[in-house]
From TrEMBL:
Biological source species: Aminomonas paucivorans DSM 12260
Gene3D superfamilies per the UniProt record, alphabetical: Metal-dependent hydrolases (3.20.20.140)
Molecular function terms, GO-annotated: metallodipeptidase activity
Coiled coil location: none
One BP term from GO: proteolysis
Protein name per the record: Peptidase M19 renal dipeptidase
């Protein structure tokens, strides 16, 4: 993936930045992440604003602290990365060969039930909106919710439907990763561009976090992308990690077309390690994932490989950013 640069539709780095800065660390991105990103050729990373379960009561404050942490990091490390809040900033950053960062909600808990807050987050740079994580909120149910009944039979709550409409009005693109099947259908029925930033193929591994073929086609029909998720429990199989990734990418291209497959690696092993848990990702780093580029070129050719690794996601992010 070093050849042309590449893009990742889902990274949880902001949570780590905020925690470490609260402990007194500075230049966290530069000291812990940037060298690996640059070595791997990463050029675009979608940074999720995610709030842990225990912090949901203060979700808005936590999300704002994460944005603030990134802005402080940008001032401390000029010229290597940029939070891009409009298309011009994205294009300039990519042309300079720096790392472009954009913001996405991973769950709308920071909004509570206030649609007006979405405009505020838009001004801060949020361009993608994942409705849920794997839990319930005011808008919808996540796809892994045990022992609960849905907020309403159709999937999204009335607030959730209004929220998607408001996001579309503001130009924010909805993200259906983590959303349950009825909620997915509601988003698709509202029309407009949407994506699944970090989801795999249910035809290859029957897991509720993965998408059915009909769902993959619906994302593609909207103009969106499905980003391959390297979290091993959603991938299935065994053996070579590149082979396992390639299997899902082949299916995404076959079902949705070459313009609608991307990467959303969701590399969380550093966070699992901090919690004393065993690794759960196919790749320990973006550098490891980058070693698979040659295999993708062999299978898809250089043109389609560039689409999967970079161009498809860049297209969607450009559409999600204001002029």
């Amino acid at each position: 993936m070093e050849g042309t640069g590449w893009a990742d539709a889902h990274g949880d780095v902001l949570m780590d930045l905020a925690v470490r800065r609260a402990r007194g660390e500075r230049k966290v991105l530069a000291s812990r992440y940037l060298e690996g990103y640059e070595s791997a050729g990463l050029r675009l990373l979608v940074c999720s604003l995610f709030v842990e379960d225990r912090l949901v009561p203060r979700a808005l404050q936590e999300a704002l602290l994460q944005v603030g942490a990134l802005l402080e990091e940008q001032e401390e490390t000029p010229g290597r990365f940029r939070l891009c809040r409009c298309r011009e900033e994205l294009r300039e950053t990519l042309e300079r060969g720096e790392l472009a960062l954009v913001l996405s909600l991973e769950g709308v808990e920071p909004l509570g039930r206030d649609l007006g807050l979405l405009r505020v987050l838009r001004e801060l740079g949020v361009c993608l909106m994942g409705l849920t994580w794997s839990r319930r909120n005011e808008a919808a149910d996540g796809c892994v919710v045990e022992g609960t009944s849905p907020l309403r039979p159709g999937g999204l709550s009335p607030f959730g439907l209004d929220l998607v409409r408001e996001a579309q009005r503001l130009g924010i693109v909805p993200d259906v990763s983590h959303l349950n099947d009825p909620g997915f259908e509601d988003v698709a029925a509202l029309g407009g561009l949407f994506l699944a930033s970090h989801s795999n193929c249910r035809a290859l591994l029957d897991h509720p976090r993965n998408l059915t073929d009909s769902q993959i086609r619906a994302v593609a029909a909207s103009g969106g992308v499905v980003g391959f998720n390297a979290h091993a429990p959603f991938v299935g199989g065994d053996g070579d990690p590149c082979d396992r990734m390639l299997r899902h990418l082949e299916h995404l291209v076959e079902v949705g077309g070459p313009d609608h497959a991307a990467l959303g690696l969701d590399l969380c092993d550093p966070f699992f390690a901090l919690a004393g848990e065993q690794p759960k990702d196919l790749f320990r780093s973006h550098e490891e994932a980058a070693r698979c580029r040659g295999r993708l070129v062999e299978r898809f050719g250089p043109h389609t490989t560039r689409k999967i690794l970079r161009d498809n996601l860049v297209r969607v992010v450009e559409a999600a950013l204001p002029d």
